[in-house]
Amino acid sequence: MSWLAYSYGKINLGLYVLERLPTGYHRIETGFCFIEWKDRFTVRPSDSYSLQLSDPSLPGGGENLITQAYRAFDQYVGLHQHYRFEVTKNIPAGAGLGGGSSNAALTFRILNKLEKAGLDEEDLIDLSRNLGSDIAFFIRGKPGIGTGLGQEIEPLEIQPDAWILTIYPGFESSTAEAYEICQPNPEPNMSLRSILTNEPRDEWRYLLQNDLEPPVVAHHDMVGNIRDQLYELGAEYASMSGSGSAVYGIFEQDFVAIQAYESFHELGFQANLTRPGFQPDQGIYLKENSA
Q: What CA–CA distance (Å, rounded) separates 235 from 146?
């Protein structure tokens, strides 16, 4: 008997770094929405915990967020039995797409269901607070605006009713370096909420920004080149996601988005095309005939 579930990536619609805190963390404001880039989880009961990743180059030990989430749940809630996790990784690591955080959130949700622990969203978010700021967004499973350290999520219907083309340039970007170099701006010209809810997408190019993008582009000019190419291929808005390195473009017309996808795919880039108004499948499905 085993269970099947999917872990989805995200992009950031704007990212304002408002303040550098004495703790070394940063107060931010950002829009979160989902993309269809996803990892596949198969989970089955086992005598002891184990994690098998499809990509052997990825860390599978204590530094992996799946393992950290599993241990946190076991420590604070307790497990009646252990499980084997088999994960087919598709979301690129170090890309600003939240793959690790999404994996951790799904791990919490799976254990909550299989163990019949009865925890609500706030309980699971409390468990995640020491693991990563993006995990709260994935636990809620709805688009919204993140504030504070990014853990305070206000659900808001900001999932674009348009095609999202996400490109991975083939290298990772350091989150710590991006935040270290960026210059916080405590008073943006316009609120992120106002831009995302009131301004047309074709104006976002002039109004919406990711404060981490300039320092990353300074070190990795390909990030800027991909962003510019997305505009040339017809994107209404293009930006780096999170601290990079992935870049996305938002397209109104399907054939324009598909042509852009094919252009990058032919150049050998990993890419994902997300449908308008996409909503992630939050189901955890029992595979009764599995061994």
A: 25
Q: Which of 10, 38, 39, 142 is catalytic?
A: 10
More confident residue, 150 or 114: 114
User: Rg of the chain's alpha carbons, rounded to an integer?
Assistant: 19
Domains and CATH numbers, the chain: 2-155+280-287 (3.30.230.10), 163-274 (3.30.70.890)
What is the residue whose two structure tokens read 């710590």? Answer: 176
CA atoms of 125 and 135, how far apart (whole Å): 7
Q: What beta strand segments (E) does 97-169 contain?
A: 144-148, 152-155, 163-168
Residue 239 Cα distances to 4, 171, 267, angstroms: 33, 17, 20
* Active-site residue, 142 included: no
Tokens of 228: 């510019």
3-state secondary structure of 206: helix
| Residue keyed to tokens 């108004």 | 277
* pLDDT grade for 290, boundaries at 50, 70 and 90: low
Q: From CA 105, how far away is CA 168, in angstroms rounded?
A: 22
Cα–Cα dist 222/8, whole Å: 25
Longest dimension (CA), the chain: 58
Candidate list 38, 39, 134, 211, residue with the active-site label: 134
Residue that has been written with the tokens 């087919």 in this structure: 88
Give the pLDDT confidence score for residue 23 in this predicted structure: 84
> How deeply is 269 buried, as exposed, middle or buried, from its count of CB atoms within 10 A (0-12, 13-18, 19+)?
middle
Q: Do residues 245 and 234 make contact, with C-beta atoms less than 8 angstroms apart?
A: no
Which segments of 231-278 are extended strands (E)?
A: 237-240, 247-251, 270-274
- Predicted TM-score of the model (pTM): 0.95
More confidently predicted of 167 and 58:
167
Token output for 269:
């880039």
